[in-house]
């Protein structure tokens, strides 16, 4: 393996057995084979076995961050355990150059019976740093983890969030050659997540990172490449991170039903998505103008405003169009009215989106109708950006 390569995985696979009884039997058989010098893992799957990870290959260098994404049960955590050495691969080879720092679970790498301060010294010694270096670094570690006044307690008394903060702070101040992160930021608050995401590019100057997460905004922000796993198989691998995220959404595409709420004083009677004045057939081409023909009725004391929202498959709001900005209000006479909402060109990443509508009294905030996910929208195109929405802007030399 070249010196510049921190991790090399070649045809890596791991299989498990669904039956505890058979797993014990197979474990004894494989142990006996290894004891006499025979290789295991190359034979076909036995009864009850399945591939948690199969035939995965990649190289990772310092300065790179590989995002490993996929649905639950895809094999992501199994891969990290093989890379860390806590689980042996049944197939292929893994070679890691240098020291490994892993946060595969909250509290991973910490000694629960030691205090927070003692853990700092223990981790520093494990990574080859002296006691004097650990002592000099201690105040910065505590400040980054926001654990002032907590470091004299045993780590077992820390909450999971506190353990994550201390564990990541140790990685950040004593960076190893390889860092493995498995969904650890999910239990942190927004402030600490932002602090960690801002620190990762600095860590990449010293380390190669493997980052497992279900948060696609986090993956888009920090990863230089992605591998999408599904049922143990790698279905996408490459440096086009946004395209990999779209592959992830294709695997995890949700079937989200429409949901209505509100006072009932407004009703969405019909909706049509339009392209060039005609009903949209299939996907909306990237960058084209979208319009909606909404058949609505409302009966209230005041004419309400309308708000359209486009969300991603995780139901995070991406775009909002509020009629109040245009001074438009829906007549509240109880009659059926057709409203044309022209949203203009949509430079959305290719993929699946959902549309929601809110009809509300602007003055009181009373919601007459909230219709979530009343329509699906698929955008098609070849351009994938690192943010959900792209703007062309104007670029000139001054």
From TrEMBL:
Similarity-based family: Belongs to the ABC transporter superfamily.
Gene3D superfamilies assigned: abc- transporter (atp binding component) like domain, P-loop containing nucleotide triphosphate hydrolases
Pfam families: ABC_tran, Wzt_C
Keyword terms, alphabetized: ATP-binding, Nucleotide-binding, Transport
Domain ABC transporter, residue spans: 20-256
Any one annotated GO CC term: membrane
Record carries keyword Transport: yes
Name of the protein in its database record: ABC transporter ATP-binding protein
InterPro entries reported for this sequence: AAA+_ATPase, ABC_transporter-like_ATP-bd, ABC_transporter-like_CS, ABC_transpr_TagH-like, Bact_Polysacc_Export_ATP-bd, P-loop_NTPase, Wzt_C
Source organism, top-level taxon: Bacteria
Keyword ATP-binding attached: yes
One function term, GO molecular function aspect: ATP binding
